[in-house]
Amino acid sequence: MAAPVSMGELLRSEQLEDPLYKDEGLCVLGIFGKSALQPSSGKESLINTLADKHVFPLFGPEGDADIPGGGSLIRAYYNQESRVLYLVLTTVCDNRQLLRACEALSSGLGHAEAHDFWKAAEKQRCLHLLYLFSLCHILLLVHPTCSFDVTYDRLFRALDALRQKALPLLRAAIKDCPVSKEWKLNCRPCPPRLLFVFQMNGALKVSGGAGAGAAAGGDAPGGNPEKPKKHSPRRRLQHTLEDQIYRIFRKSRVLTNQSINCLFTVPANQAFVYVVPGPEEDPVGALLGQLRGHCTLRDSEPGAVLTGPRRYTQLRQSARQPSFTVEGSSLAGAGGQLVDCTLKEFLWQHVELVLAKKGFDDSVGRNPQPSHFELPTYSKWAQVAGRLHQVMLDSQDEGSAELALKVQGQLKVLEGFLDSDAKFSESRCQKALPLAHSAYQSNLPHNYTTTVHKNQLAQALRVYSQHARGVAFQRYALQLHDDCYKFWSNGHQLCEERSLTDQHCVHKFHLLPKTGEKPEMDRNPPILYHNSRGRSTSSCNCGRKQVPREDPFDIKAANYDFYQMLEEKCCGKLERIHFPVFQPSTPDPDPEPEGEEAAGPPEAPAEGSGDGEQLKEEEATGHTPGDSTSLSLALSLGQSADSLGPYGDGAEGQEKRPSLAERQPSTVEYLPGMLHSGCPEGLLPRFSSWSLVKLGPAKAYSCHSGLDQPGFLPGSTFLLPWDIVIRCRPEEEMGLAEPLDAAPSSWPAPNKALAGKRAPTAGLGLGRGRRGRDDVARAFVGFEYEDGRGRRFISSGPDKVVKVLGPGGPKESATRALNSDMPLYFHSPTQGRGLKPHYAQLARLFIVVPDAPLEIVLAPQVQPGPPPCPIFHPEQREVLLPPDGFWVLRFPYAYATERGPCYPPKDSQQLPSFRVLRGALRANTTSPPPQ
Fold first, then answer.
1. Angle 716-718-719 (CA atoms, 0-180°, nearest 5)?
2. Is the pLDDT of residue 141 over 90?
3. Helix 151-173 vs helix 233-251: angle between axes, to the nearest 10 degrees?
4. Which of 124, 277, 390, 851 could join 884 via S-S bond, C-beta 3.0 to 4.6 A?
5. CA distance 143 to 33
6. Best CA proximity match to 601, nearest among 658, 671, 680
7. At a CB cut-off of 8 Å and minimum separation 6, what does 833 contact?
8. How far apart are CA 929 and CA 931, in angstroms?
9. What distances in angstroms separate CA 123 from CA 5, 67, 393, 626, one per listed residue?
10. Measured distance CA(45)–CA(32) in Å, rounded
């Protein structure tokens, strides 16, 4: 064979042998191990030395690039003259293949995936080694340093276990091959002999003479350092390594007394360790030394030169045996020191035993059993090698595919030996799992939410990461995640629905009843209504009756159904102003809600009073007319120029006013929630979340006793007075309109505001040149707050509660409350002992409209959250309150948009963002038209 080829190519090709060597046997020599970093230090360079030919290139074999992903490859070189077949195994233990394997790994590969990649490469390496151990007579382990790697002990034990498991499969593969019964039974020509070749790596530097003895250990302290040593330092190192390796393998029972049962053998009376000397520092001197050695051998007598095992045995003899001088032989050096043999001489003493058909008798003990030995011809060996190659390395053949799969299945035996780090990781992670499970289940309620599950899972993973180690960390972490999720979903999952007051439903995961369906607890999952077990006390529309209520989960139940239930008991017969709602034009009971095509403009937050007034100006011309009276429509169309904005002057060239037809609400689509500033124009909800009722005439409220309703805190039942200046008519009209005689009818009725009361001119901004005098009408306003326990109070400003201790009513006016943004939520005066803040919500607005020539317009706007929360308002943006009335506007209990509810504030810092914009009430003073 002129050049080395891969094992597959060797078996597929027909080897043309010389007829002179056709019937002779051949010795199969396998080489494996690790290579050093230096060039020309690989295993292939040893074959160049043994064959005295330049077989392999200096920088590694050219076929290494054909190995996919840095795997394993066996290259063969057959030397017919010496009858030796060299098999060189290249794996990821060689530096060139290690670099290619690292390049094959992707950059984003995780630790566990990279570990699996390397372990797969290690398993393939073991299969190739088992292939060599099944075909070779001699195996040469090459190591780049001069110290033994103890990991080979674990590797050889794994190979021995794999061989015992795969032996029946290998017997079935070679049962038809023309070899002996012993070969078929043991699946190898003989127990292979393992030799070790170490390379000098600078750990042993010898300069010669006495220094050599000192470097190698020398004599004991006090000895004679000038006494020459019989063995060189390199030879003493070889003897030490032999003793160390033999002790390790015997201790782990890789080597036993009977060599036939072992994976390999080592000779008992021959050297099996060779240390390759390092490169000389003086290359010229090294060349001269080699030349001198060749010349000395050439001049010596042929009969005096010993070859083969006898020569190497003589080297190991005692120092008392006479040795040759340098001039007569190369066996002895200067000072009587024995000369070290070459690598070829070391190896050839074992090869000659094979070619001479003597075999290896490496069994020790009292009753050693002879081991089988066979020296096959190349053709017989090629048949066995081809069958084993199909079963162990190449599974493409259809006839041996089943056996190949079974052999691959036996690779699990290697996990316990080779993957010790993974085995340790498995053990650590398995011990950490129960601790993590306990951490997850500690202090858990029977049913809990996703947030609690995630928090407990994070705690469990934290405990797991403190104890788990290694490559199995990720896999067992995923198992912990799955186990915790199964525990949570198996009857411990809480309903994730939150009420409008931001409280979770207390039931476990369930379904809502459909229309006409009854709740069923026994079903899986059960059919139940949401319930947070939260109860509060709330008043009806007019405020005269308080009842407990459940925590609502639906906006209709919160703002409409609860108050409709109380209509029959309390305020059902009161006069009211109905806000417009959706009225379908067809008898379809379930028209279409607002779709995506009716999406409104982007929400614009209103942060200050200027934004609120601008919003009122924009809404003044686009509001929907109410159903109460035509007076509201007339007021909306006949406002002052300031409120009408661009439509106030009536000048030519102004923008076209939208017609009434264009502003009619839709009768096909409705809003699914509440009306706010972000809703599209022309859509109304199916129900109104607001209520405006009349408790009676203006005299129904007494400014001396306050409100007569339940739940109010003592001293906080009084409404705030609101003095409104009324412009008087000219004196001519006043004289015509007033009666001539002072009849009793000209006196005001009891409990009515005095229409003729003189107003002080100071502070009213009245000019001195005005004809006539202005009168003052007194209205009463009260912003009522109600907390969850039914405690109610009136607020006189953004940060003050009305509290009157004596008779006479409150001293402060309602001007501050009307000109400020009132808070939607207020700290409850009855906080209690709890640490959690308790808030009262704006529930009602009381307005007492006097019997006077004035108009009070109601236009509430609520911003129930920080921007970009929209602004909520009733379905009729502005409502004209008729004179002589005691009106109550009920605000919604909860606020929600299409995206979800607007939850109450959680801390005091959020309170300023929840507000009722100023301008909820304004008064227009007018004079009655002439009769």
1. 125
2. yes
3. 60
4. 851
5. 6
6. 680
7. none
8. 6
9. 23, 16, 12, 85
10. 13
Q: Read off the pLDDT of residues 646-695 as tens digits, 9 standing for 90 and up.
A: 323 333 333 344 443 445 777 778 888 788 988 888 888 888 999 999 99
| Residue 739: both structure tokens together | 């009666």
User: What SS3 state is found at 201?
Assistant: coil
pTM: 0.56
What is the distance between the alpha carbons of residues 579 and 584, in angstroms, rounded to a whole number? Answer: 16
Q: CA–CA separation, 893 vs 560, rounded Å?
A: 9
Which residue is it, tokens 């042998």?
17
pLDDT digits (tens, 9 = 90+) for 382-441: 999 999 998 888 766 666 788 888 888 888 888 777 777 888 889 999 999 999 999 999
DSSP string, 645-708: GGGSS--TTPPPPPPTTTTPPPSS-BBSS--BTTSPTT--BSS-S-EEEEEESGGGSBTTTB--
The arrangement of strands across the sheet holding 914-916 comes to: 822-823, 914-916, 862-864
Phi, psi for residue 88 in degrees, rounded to 5: -110, 125
What is the token pair recorded at 880?
Answer: 């004209």
366's tokens: 């009292």
Q: Is 128 helix (H, G, I), strand (E, B) or coil?
A: helix
Alpha carbons 33 and 151: distance in angstroms, whole number? 12
Closest CA to 914 of 825, 800, 845: 825
* Nearest-5° Cα angle at 524, 520 to 528: 35
CB contact at 8 A, 719 and 701: yes
For 803, the token pair is 């509290």
Cβ atoms of residues 877 and 623 within 8 Å: yes
536: nearest Cα among 501, 495, 496, 572? 501
